[in-house]
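Run log // design_07
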């Protein structure tokens, strides 16, 4: 391995180290209360080193959100092209993927759904913003492909597949954000899984061709 390759690998490892530290801090304190200094402390690095890799806190958190979107896409690609299951079964696997992602790190996911904030997006570099757009498009494309298959095979109603995919994603984000807001009043139990189960049951029944 040459010097350049070794430096690139070390840079990537340092970036992953920072992102893992950020994930822990954001999950423990939330986006608004977390500071770059705390993330640097968790990563055992100086704050100045953090800024060599990430422009600001928004960009660092967005990079975690991009990772979440990439993970969702990777998980969906495991079943969207399978021929031994139909579109309805794939919808239930999609729901399982959504729940798995939420249970892995609810705080990062919740803040992903807040990224529509104009203020947050304006604080991102052009490179990170473009990466966010692309990973979001990839995730939506995977969902759309499941819906399209259901329509083409006569299982789902003939509605615009992108519109139906938007409904699925909006339902996911809406359930996560709403149930999370309710937990501020009652933190005894997390009802996201049960609510998503119900939401997908209703959606799948609504999508079916009568």
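design_07 sequence
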């Amino acid at each position: 391995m040459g010097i350049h390759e070794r430096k690139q690998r070390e840079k990537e490892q340092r970036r992953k180290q920072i992102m893992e530290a950020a994930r822990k801090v954001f999950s423990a304190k939330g986006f608004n209360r977390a500071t770059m200094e705390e993330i640097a402390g968790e990563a055992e690095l100086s704050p100045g080193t953090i800024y060599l890799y990430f422009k600001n806190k928004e960009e660092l958190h967005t990079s975690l959100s991009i990772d979440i979107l990439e993970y969702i896409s990777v998980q969906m690609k495991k079943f969207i092209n399978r021929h031994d299951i139909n579109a309805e079964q794939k919808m239930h696997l999609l729901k399982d993927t959504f729940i798995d992602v939420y249970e892995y790190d609810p705080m990062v996911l919740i803040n992903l759904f807040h990224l529509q904030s104009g203020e947050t997006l304006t604080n991102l570099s052009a490179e990170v913003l473009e990466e966010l757009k692309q990973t979001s498009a990839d995730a939506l494309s995977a969902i759309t492909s499941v819906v399209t298959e259901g329509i083409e095979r006569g299982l789902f109603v003939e509605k615009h597949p992108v519109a139906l995919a938007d409904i699925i994603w909006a339902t996911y984000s809406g359930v996560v954000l709403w149930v999370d807001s309710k937990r501020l009043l009652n933190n005894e139990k997390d009802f996201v899984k049960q609510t998503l189960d119900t939401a997908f049951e209703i959606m799948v029944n609504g999508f079916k061709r009568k």
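The radius of gyration is 19 Å.
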